[in-house]
Amino acid sequence: MIVMGFLTEREKEILRHLREGKSVMDIGKLLEVPVTSVSRSITSIKRKARDIEEDIAFLREIGYLSFDKGKMKFISADRDPKALGRLR
Predict the structure, then answer these.
(1) Containing H/E element for 5?
(2) For burial by CB atoms within 10 Å, which of 28, 40, 76, 77 has the most?
(3) Distance from C-alpha of 15 to C-alpha of 25, rounded to nearest angstrom
(4) How far apart are CA 84 and CA 88, in angstroms?
């Protein structure tokens, strides 16, 4: 599941409808907005997901976080960059 804290309320609503299997046209009708507006929101959701994916990959690369049994684990709980340097 995508972490939804970085999505707007409208994007969260659209994502909820997509999870329910609704089409872009159905969502537009439900929200009373043009289909192009729904499509733009979906593009924004994808872009934000890619951005966060790149950030996570970078943090893994520098050893700042890892995954254990499918869950993210920060190496330094206080997120202090100096603490990361002490781990190496």
Answers:
(1) none
(2) 28
(3) 14
(4) 7
- The token pair at 11 is 């994007």
pLDDT of 28 reads 97
Tens of pLDDT, residues 21-50: 999 999 999 999 999 999 999 999 999 999
Tokens 């609503």 belong to residue: 13
pLDDT digits (tens, 9 = 90+) for 49-66: 998 888 888 888 887 888
**CA dist., res. 47 & res. 32, Å (int):** 24
Q: Which of 33, 45, 34, 39 is nearest to 4 (CA)?
A: 45
**What's the CATH number where 47 sits?**
1.10.10
Residue 31 lies in a domain: yes
- pTM for the predicted model, two decimal places: 0.69
